[in-house]
Amino acid sequence: MPSPGRGLGPRGFLTDEEKQNKPKVTKGLLVRILSYLKPYWPQFLLVFLAILLSATVGLLPSIITGRIVDEALVGRNMGLLIQLLLAAFATLTVSQVIGVLESYINAWISQRIIFDMKNQMYDHLQHMPHAFFTSEKQGDIITRMNSDISGVSSVISGTLSSIVSNVATVVTSLVALFTMSWQLALVGMVVIPLLILPTRSVGQTRYKLLTQSQAKNDEMNQMINETLSVSGSLLVKLFAREDREYARFVGLNEEVTRLHLKEQRSGKWFGVVMGMFTQLGPLLIYFAGGWLIISRGDSALTVGTITATVALINRLYRPVQSLLNIQVDFTRSLALFTRIFDYFDMKNPIVSKDNGMKPDMKNADIRYDHVAFSYDPEKPLLTDIDFTVPAGKMYAIVGPSGSGKSTVVNLLPRLYDVLAGSVTVGGVDVRDMDLKYLRSNIGVVTQESYLFNGTIRDNLLYAKPDATEAELEEACKIANIHSYISSQPEGYETIVGNRGLKLSGGEKQRLSIARVILKDPKILILDEATSALDSISENAIQEALEHLMQGRTSIVIAHRLSTILKADRILVVQGGVIKEAGTHEALLARNGVYRELYETQFRVILDLENRDK
Predict the structure, then answer these.
(1) Which CATH fold topology does 11-181+301-344 show?
(2) I want to staple 304 with a disulfide (CB 3.0 to 4.6 A). Which of 70, 126, 233, 379 is the partner?
């Protein structure tokens, strides 16, 4: 007998959005889904055999009940009664054991498939281009990686097994029903349409209420997250808005409570109606059976047969209801796989060529040969970037905000690929190089130093897993961070916190420089991040950077005049081209773009530097 309220809400029907985005069922899609199930076909075979055996064994208690009534009770045979009761108990036990076995194998299969898909997804995402992570929402990536793939478990252990189990239960029950009495079987099935209509009607009503309730609940959670966070609670206190926020919370909480109660009331009344309908079937069978025996004198029909029929018809109702939702479950299962496959089908245009070249990059010139690039075809960013950085030299790139300075340097390690022209190192196009080799020879110090939530040692070893203690300490001494690390109680085992939260900006920056020193790259890209640091931290970082750049070909996106003055050549990017190039004095004398930048940006920063001194 179906329990009240089961199978309601969004499970019972497709929403408008789901209907609009309903995936197209194709042979290719089904074959692709089955490819994940194929390695585990022996286990699936065991599950299906267990389900079929369980459905068959599940008939026996009802049939035995009929014999108990007809042969043991009516025949007043105590010995037979005990035998039949023991047989009924044994079949129930066997059915439960089979169910546990089937459930265990099902769980094992689903978890192994999830394991395979998560590994495949993580590997796929790791090799996606940088542009993917700048355009996709991080929440969407995590949802596909976790929620969507984990949802496959419910498809395998829920939808697939449920369909097979329900079909087996329905078929075996119908065979048994019509074998015992086709007349009573037809009478019992009359109730089935009465179970369908109210389920769908009330299911839609409850789903609407649940949707409204969830929306209000999300709003309340958002408020809790905002006002009870460190920054939010501080803002509330500073503006003395405690009473206002409390009143707003009470209003939201009251609305959520009202919707929950309304939804629960509709479910209770539905439970009453469904309970009446499910009891109507057995009553009709008793009536029809009584009429056949009493009025028609049907000698073939017994009280035991009627009792067994009632038990079997109750066993039939719930799987019939579930099978009516096959389309919904099947559609949602396909939609889940489609979302996962959408990510798998995203191509990575930045891949390493087969037998990619590995030229010596130690004393190699860097050449940007008439490079063009754009994130949006309708908005060109770089149109004709043309310059050469001689081996061992340091070039500084300056320009107005949004001119594409960072994009220029990102083309070198192939975070993006040029749309026209080429970027070469030692005369070899970076697109022809082995990608891993190319990136392993380029060191990058970015504006925001990213650290993993682990120890200082873990973050340093990310650059060189086999580095010795002496190498770690030497790199940190060069980066002017060893003294700080040594002063910590845990030393190199100090936890840096999420994104290095437990370290100051200067400490994080020096640690990231030490990490690049350990990498020992042939080419260096620097996106200075000293503007927001105190003068002590900045001086320590400048010393570390100067040591790092010695003997290396370097490209620096310069924010400080002190760095620009040390450059062998300054490149001014504007309008998608190298607008000006030369030394500091020569560029000032031209009274062009650089002069304007100097007057509006660099000179202001220089005045601040002098004031700090």
Answers:
(1) ABC transporter transmembrane region fold (1.20.1560)
(2) 70
Question: Alpha-carbon distance 61 to 94, whole Å?
Answer: 11
* pLDDT, position 532: 44
What φ, ψ does residue 318 adopt, rounded to 5°?
Answer: -65, -45
Token reading at 58: 């599940």
State the Cα–Cα distance between residues 131 and 433, nearest whole angstrom. Answer: 20
- Residue 176's contacts (CB-CB under 8 Å, 6 or more residues apart) are 59, 62, 63, 312
Confidence at residue 370, expressed as pLDDT on a 0 to 100 scale: 94
Model confidence pLDDT, tens digit, residues 458-485: 989 988 889 899 999 988 988 888 888 8
Let me know if the fold of 361-441+523-613 is the same as that of 450-520.
yes
% of the chain surpassing 70 pLDDT: 84
**pTM summary value:** 0.69
Enumerate the domain spans of the chain: 11-181+301-344, 361-441+523-613, 450-520
Fold of the CATH domain 450-520: Rossmann fold (3.40.50)
Half-sphere CA count of 185, side-chain side, radius 13 A: 13
Q: Which residues contact 602 (CB under 8 A, 6 or more apart)?
A: 560, 561, 564
The CATH code belonging to domain 361-441+523-613 is 3.40.50.300
Q: At a CB cut-off of 8 Å and minimum separation 6, what does 298 contact?
A: 292
- Residues 240-273 pLDDT 10s: 888 988 998 898 888 888 887 876 666 565 566 6
Could you tell me which of 525, 526, 575, 527 has the C-alpha nearest to residue 402? 575
Burial bucket for residue 128 (CB in 10 Å: 0-12, 13-18, 19+): middle
Distance CA 391, CA 380 (A): 30
559 within 8 A of 398, measured Cβ to Cβ: no
Q: What is the pLDDT of residues 491-515, one digit of tens each?
A: 889 888 776 777 887 788 888 888 8
163 HSE (CA, 13 A, CB side): 13
